[in-house]
Amino acid sequence: MTPGTPPTSPTPAAPVARGDLVWAPPADVRERTRVGGLLAWLERERGLSFAGHEDLWQWSVDDLEGFWSALWEFFGVRAHAPASAVLESREMPGARWFPGALLNYAEHALGTDEDRDRVAVLGRSQTRADVDLTFGELRDAVARARSALLELGVRRGDRVVGYLPNVPEALVGFLATASLGATWASCALEFGPRSVLDRFAQVEPSVLLVAGGYSYGAKVVDRRDQVAEVRAGLPGARVVDIEYGGHRVPDALGWGDLLAAAPARELVFEPVPFDHPLLVLFSSGTTGQPKAIVHGHGGILLEHLKNHALSWDLGPEDRMLWFSTTAWMMWNALVSCLLVRSSIVMLDGDPAHPDLEWQWRLAEETGVTFFGASPGFLMACRAAGVDLRGRDLRIRTVVSAGAPLPPEGYDWVRRQLGEEVFLNVGSGGTDVCSGIVQNNPLLPVWAGEISGRALGVDAHAFDERGREVVGELGELVISAPMPSMPVAFWGDPDGSRLRAAYFDHYPGTWRHGDWIVFDDRGRCHVAGRSDATLNRGGVRLGTAEFYRVVEELDEVADSLVVHLEDADGGNGELLLFVQLAPGAALDDDLRRTVAGALRAALSPRHVPDDVVGVPAVPRNLTGKKLELPVKRILQGVPLGDVASRDALADPDALDPFVELAARRRNGAVR
């Protein structure tokens, strides 16, 4: 949204409560925004007129073919062959979009000759000096990397993976892979070898890009031993070291030499079908091996054009900063800013080093207009008394996702950045690689609430019987197909695992796994995960990953982990319960051993806030651990409302958790 008349909002002097109006669209919103441009285009080109967001949203889900074909034309999607239809079938799963069309995501991300001199990427790192690239320099780097991958034998349909930090080399590797019609997947360098192999081994990569270490604040982290374990588990992959920082990976191809030696080739883009695999994102691994979620070129292209331009209002004059690792879907969302010619700031390091103002200082130094952050980060800034009012910030939009943002967070953003700054809070997921419910500039912003449904997303709340509910808690569902729904799960040829993940509960309707409440105006708030997935500071963690590490310790016979969300938007409390092996004692030494094992094998985010001993881990009669009942007990729900003793393998196994909940209410730690 370009500068103009400030929106009508309450004065920042007054604190806000849930439901208070904190931002309203300006009178000239249709002239100033990308979604306003779409409305004008629809009236001019299609003869369609809409009063506002609700009318536009209703049309977008009632006439899927009309809406998505309009976006195809509005954004000028470049196809090497035309589609024979927009949507071949609305059936879920199995909907097929734009059959016959041939395109390539990377072709749209790398700009045109007109963009060559414009800044595309600003790399900021605690490991090395700044790295900035124009669109022209990015295109040249992708062309060289593409040629190098060809020399390594990579072809259409092959997989290239990155065990990498959030640096420009990861972006170049991804776009070069996509240009060939090969498929990309990535994991953060902080992930332990087991977590990485649980993911990468599924896709059997032919090339593995790695870094040997990094700096995390003042700490230098050597990851060469972990890289060695990962490469040993991927014997078919050629290993390329991007030569980041001071740690070189032995017996690996060097990124610089590889690109320099590759023959000069023209940058061309392999035309692929709309649903051709672009990238694989991985689920948290809650119920076992992480699901390898395949997203297609066309689905990510069209969804991110829609989301970034129409919901986030990004365009060529914008610059986005959103701290992310390469393991999170927000990394893909960050990269896709290039589709709308916004530039991006890629950050690597400790997001709070040397203090919480580091990211805000970078935003000031780099001229960021769009600042993305988790609710936990915003609330931590508030709690620490961070004061931004003296800074020369150009931020006009703040987007927050990953967990609910309490009203105090809305108030803090407004007070610190000004009432004209647009705060867009949303919720979505890895599964669709985008937002499901969120704001756009046509909608007001109310404290503690998400303003509406994303365009093209037929989202509702269902009760257990599959009936829509309004004004009460229900399962978040999507009743009509989206182009960015998964093409498949890798290694699931008959689609049975995908169907079980999303469509078994409500046949023909997508069940997302969140609790949500919609009001009669479409406003909503997400109340947390409805399954056992752990959501720590917006990053989903899987319980199965914990168990594989913890239960290998000699002192631990069994274990169970739960996460208790923080009502103020923080990281919450991660509690690990252990059933000890005979003769073992739960002392501080064992707690340190558990924490060290989880940090080394998985990541620092997997380290629990407390480790508590229990006589037995509760399971049902089929042997499944009862994470959700334990969580609900610790949240104060009576045992009788959580589980029947008759359904437990050990009828008394939940009693210690009831006693712990009572002690915690009385102020005891354990």
Short summary of the structure?
This protein is an alpha/beta fold and 670 residues long.
Written description of the protein model:
With 670 residues, the chain is α/β, with parallel strands linked by helices. Among the domains are: 109-118 and 134-278, Rossmann fold (3-Layer(aba) Sandwich); 534-665, GMP Synthetase, Chain A, domain 3. 30% of the residues lie in helices and 21% in strands. Strands 4-3-16-15-17-18-19 form a 7-stranded mixed β-sheet, with helices on both faces. A hairpin with a 2-residue loop joins β8 (213-216) and β9. α6 (135-151) crosses α10 and α14 (375-383) crosses α15. The radius of gyration is 25 Å and the shape is globular. It starts with 20 loop residues before the first strand and ends in a 5-residue tail after the last helix.
Structural class: alpha/beta
Low-confidence stretches: 2-11
Shape category: globular
What is the CATH architecture descriptor of the domain at 109-118 and 134-278?
A: 3-Layer(aba) Sandwich
Total beta strands: 32
At the fold tier of CATH, the topology name of the domain at 109-118 and 134-278 is Rossmann fold
Give the spatial strand order of the biggest sheet.
4-3-16-15-17-18-19
Content of β-strand: 15-25%
Radius of gyration: 25 Å
CATH domain class of the domain at 109-118 and 134-278: Alpha Beta
**What number is the mean pLDDT?**
92
Helix content: 25-40%
Report, as a whole number of angstroms, the end-to-end distance.
Answer: 51 Å
Main sheet properties: 7 strands, mixed
Q: What's the total helix number?
A: 20
